[in-house]
Amino acid sequence: MGLLLFIIGLIVFSRAGSFQRTSPVGTKVKGWVYMIFCFLWTVVVFTTTWSSYQKAVQAYREGHYQTVEGTVQDFVPMPYSGHALESFNVDGRIFRYSDYVENPGFCQTRSHGGPIHEGLRVRIGYIRGTLGNIILKLEIAE
Question: DSSP alpha helices (H): ranges in the chain?
Fold first, then answer.
């Protein structure tokens, strides 16, 4: 998203003349501030997202995750429009996620086709993340 905003800003400000020598100083400063902000925001978001993803992949590949098995309880689905996290617990371990929140693990909500529902028997491989438990592996009993 930040890269897209950066490209849009580059197009808009170059057409408006803010990167040219003849443009007013205020317009030029606004253009550069916008571009620098978009660039820095993109770098920061990418770095934090990528490191979370790498941590999850490494834990999964090396088998360094905890496992819980049981029945889904206290299931609270996310509304289709979002604005809430879907949540449930299995044997006292609470899981929260959303289609709209960046998460390196499983995050497909029931309202958008996800398989989790009350009473479902599951086995979950997970790690502890900064915002809670991250589902790395989901197995559903038949």
Answer: 2-15, 25-62
Cα-trace Rg, the chain:
21
Delimit the domains of the chain by residue range. 2-62, 66-140
Q: Global pTM?
A: 0.74
State the architecture of 66-140 in CATH terms. Answer: Beta Barrel (2.40)
Per-residue pLDDT of 88-112, as tens digits, reads 999 999 999 998 888 899 999 999 9
- For residues 77 and 62, give the distance between their C-alpha atoms in angstroms, rounded to a whole number: 31
Question: CA-to-CA distance for 21 and 60, rounded, in angstroms?
Answer: 53
State CA 6 to chain mean position distance: 20
> With contact defined as beta carbons under 8 Å apart, do 132 and 103 qualify?
no
